[in-house]
Amino acid sequence: MKIAMSSYTGMGAWFVLRLLAEGHQVDYYLSEQKYEDVLSGLVPPPKILSLDHRRTQRGYGYPSYKEYDLSLFDLTGRAKQADASRLEAPTIGDGSFEHWLEDDREAGIQAMERCKINVPPYQKFNNPAEAKAFVQKNDKRYVYKPFTIGSDMQDVATTYVAKDAKDLTRVIDQLFVISKSAPFILQEFIEGTEASVAGFFNGKEFYMLTCTLEEKKFMNDNKGPNTGCSGNLVFAISEESKLYRDGLKRAIPLLQEAGFTGMIDLNTIVTEGTAYGLEWTPRFGYLADSTIAAMYGTGYGAMLAAVASGKVPEIKWTAPYGYSVQLSIPPYPTEIRLPKAKDVPIEGIDPRDIEQLQRCYLYDAKLAPEKNAEPHLITSGNYGYIGAPIGIGDSIQEAASRCEGMVKNIQIPNMQYRTDIQKSTYKRYNFLEENGWL
Fold it and tell me: Crossing angle, helix 105-114 and helix 96-103, to 10 degrees?
């Protein structure tokens, strides 16, 4: 197949590598030139897109998608470009509906309510003063969630779970500034375990359902800043799962009406008896979708094309469990570029081993340019988020053991990673199983 991958910050470059390994022809389009070193030497040089849609000396406006069998977008945020793509080719990962569902916090919650998915009580605000008065009046624990402005990604670092009402009123002004004065919602905190249910939707039905248990905090025991995902456990579930029936399944009419195709995830907070919807991810998710790709195995590109085209994909799992641990170096988890974080050697990942590269999601990495040396990887200088080894298996323990074995073989100066992912996700898995959710 001939496939287009449109990326904004290079997060989708690994999927280019993954699809090339299956023998597909892939054209890689990148919106931000400063990320062109991501996986340099491992994937074809990206074609730099001009954001103002005019051709520049080095760049391109929107490409013609008529020549492609499949068009992929790695993040929401370029809805007009994705909508144009969808008119010419089967498209996954972005568009007006996806942007509305994920990036407009209030609209996403209202969509859940329309689907009769339980949601925690919430209130929208445009400034901190109104929010402070609301919090002081109700004296409850809330979660601060900013909207996305323009085409930026949601900044998970500015999603804040307050300890109590006093804590939120103390920090809310700073959160508002950090999130670029974006409107925000305050959502009532629900005590429970967080779980995400995802599936591939072909416009009619869901296929290959999975549940993902992410650990979002940077440090062991859920300490430190929110990274989005510092490691995860992913496992296949059936259509009989109560977690699916009480959540994502209820969205089928909404998705059919919108003509949606692709992968979509509903993040929930789960108590002993109720699942509450929190937010949608109607696109590739990192690290969940790279783990799912490893669990699926060969034919991943053909499966995506079938889903995007409204066909029934080949339904299979090479392994029903997947496990990954995020590796990084300073200055991560900040997104500051420092010269000393560039060209740092990465040992233990052989760039010639295609099978190994498919078992390790990579971001801040590239092929070293030395011509006379053994091929090896170095960092590309994108704030230290190196990537994540992925283990798959027939049990949680087997998947975790394979991933952790890969981690032990990787050597990077000042490497950072959590060592408690298996312990923490296994505890949450047991909670879901014991309460009948799986």
Answer: 100
Determine contact, residues 159/146, Cβ cutoff 8 Å: yes
- Assess contact for 155 and 216: CB atoms under 8 A: no
Which residue, chain included where needed, has tokens 């389009």?
29
8 Å CB contact between 173 and 128: yes
Q: Which two tokens stand for residue 221?
A: 């025991």
* pLDDT for 151 beyond 60: no
Angle in degrees, 0-180, between the axes of helices 96-103 and 79-86, rounded to the nearest 10: 140
Confidence of residue 425 (pLDDT cuts 50, 70, 90): very high
Q: How many CB atoms lie within 10 A of CB 410?
A: 18
Measured CA to CA, the distance from residue 178 to residue 192 in angstroms comes to 28
Task: Kindly report the average pLDDT of the chain as a whole number.
Answer: 93
Return the percent helix, strand and coil in the chain, to nearest 5: 30, 30, 40
pLDDT of residue 335: 87
Strands 193-201 and 206-219: antiparallel
pTM: 0.91
Dihedrals phi, psi of 111, to nearest 5 degrees: -65, -40
d(CA 74, CA 94): 8
Output the CA torsion sign for 433, 240, 233, 142.
negative
Select, from the ranges 14-18, 53-57, 77-81, 133-137, the one with the highest average predicted confidence (pLDDT). Answer: 14-18
Classify the C-alpha dihedral 51-56-61-67 as positive or negative.
negative
User: Token pair for residue 72?
Assistant: 């992929």
Residue 154 has pLDDT above 60, yes or no: no
Dihedral class, residue 95 (left if φ above 0, else alpha if ψ from -120 to 50, else beta): left
Q: Which of 292, 258, 340, 331 is nearest to 86 (CA)?
A: 258
The pLDDT of residue 103:
86
So what's the pLDDT on residue 57?
Answer: 38
* C-alpha angle 347-352-357 in degrees, rounded to nearest 5: 70
Detail the DSSP E strand segments found in 261-405: 262-270, 275-281, 321-325, 327-328, 342-346, 360-362, 366-367, 377-380, 385-393
DSSP 21-44: HTT-EEEEEES-GGGTTTTBTTBP
- The two tokens of residue 432 are 């879901």
Q: Give dist(CA 417, CA 145) in Å, integer.
A: 26
Backbone angles phi, psi at 403, to 5 degrees: -65, -50
pLDDT higher at 148 or 303: 303
Q: How far apart are CA 161 and CA 44, in angstroms?
A: 41
